[in-house]
Structures are given as structure tokens and as C-alpha cells.
Amino acid sequence: MRRFMTNGGWLTGILLMSAALTGCCCGFQRTVPEGPIVQVPPQEPAVIPTVPEPPQLPPPAIPELPPMPPVPPPPPPPEHKESVTPEVKKAIEDLGTRYPGLFTFDAARGMFRFNSDITFDSGSAVVKPQAKAALTQLAEILSGDDAKDRQMTIIGYTDTDPVRKAATVAHLKALGKPASNLGLSEARAEAVAAVLRAGGVASRRMVTKGKGQADPVASNATAAGKAQNRRVEIFLTPMAG
Q1: pLDDT in tens, 167-195
Q2: Which domain holds residue 125?
Q3: What interhelical angle do 181-198 and 166-174 show, nearest 10?
């Protein structure tokens, strides 16, 4: 080194040292091969496939129903018919006028209601003379051509007082009936039927029943109510068959 510097070659030494250092550094550099630069085209965004909408179906066709037939008007109510002809009704009303208080007549139901206290003595099953005369005339009306197609149901009733009269008890026993209100009601219904039969009404047109103190039409707690419950009823209905 001293020789280099002495002989003026110091500059040459410096250059050699720089070259040596440069070569060492170059050993760490990466050599990039020469060639054309390839440009990567930009990626297009991913396309999400669209789901097609379902086809629009037409609304279902509603079949046309046939027109409803017109509703017929309701039939007129049946014409009310009374149980007897106007002629028979008028004859019965006239009979009631001649014997006031003896009976009432409901033409719509065909029902007679005889006041038992006027028809019979108290506790008796024997028809009184006045009631017997009225029943005989009623038999003539019901035996006529305008009423001969009607049958009669004759029902006897009593109040709640027990049968006590010795004569009534003996009479009921003679008829083969119990000495009770039921037996008395049966005997009174049969007594009315006997008068009608004597007046001309055929036996086949009559049915008798006794209900005793059943089916009261008023309270048995008062004398007036008991009087209403002591009764004989006759119902007119068309002949069966």
C-alpha cells in the first residue's frame, strides 16, 4: 500500500477497493430476467344469476251456477173449520140460551162443559130433571144428519173432597165402582151417556171416562174453584174409520 501511495498509485488503489466493494454488494442483488411485461386484465365482478319469476297463471275460472229456482210462496194457512156445521152450532147455542148456566160450548174444540152442580145433586151420580131435559134435546141435535158423523167422548171430574154420603157410596157399590172420587166421576159420565142414548144417540158413538180429581181447571182451595172442577165434559170428534 505504501508503494502504491508512494509511487502515486494511491488513486488506483482507491478505485480497486471501490470495485471490490461494489462486487460484493452485487452478489446480494436479484437479477430480473428481461422480457415483455404481461399485463393482467382486471377481473370482472362475478355475475349472480337471476332466478326467473314464475309465470303468472290466470285465476281459476269459477263455473257459473245455474240460477236458483224461485222460492214458491208459503201455502196459505189451512182454513179454520169448526167441529160442527153452522146449523148445529146455532141449535146448540139456542139450547144453551134456554138452559142458562147448565153448559158452555166451544165450537172450535167441539167441547161441551156441563156444570156438575146443576147436572147432579151434591155427591150424587143421578142426573137432575132439568139437566136430563136439556141432554135429551141435545141428543136430538146430535142425532140429526148434520152431526151424525161425530162421535162423543164423555169425561167426568170431581173436586178433592172425598165421597162421604152413604147413598152415594151404596150407589157406586151397586154399579161395581169404588166409593171414591174416581168411581164417582166414572158414574157421572156414564149417567150422561145413558140420557143421550135414551134420546137417540147410538152407543157406538160414545165413549165414557172418569178422571176423578185429576186435571183441575181451578184451585181446590176455594169453594168457587171446587165448583169449577166438578164438571162433565163432552168432546165431539169425527168418527173413526
Answers
A1: 999 999 999 999 999 999 999 999 999 99
A2: 86-238
A3: 70
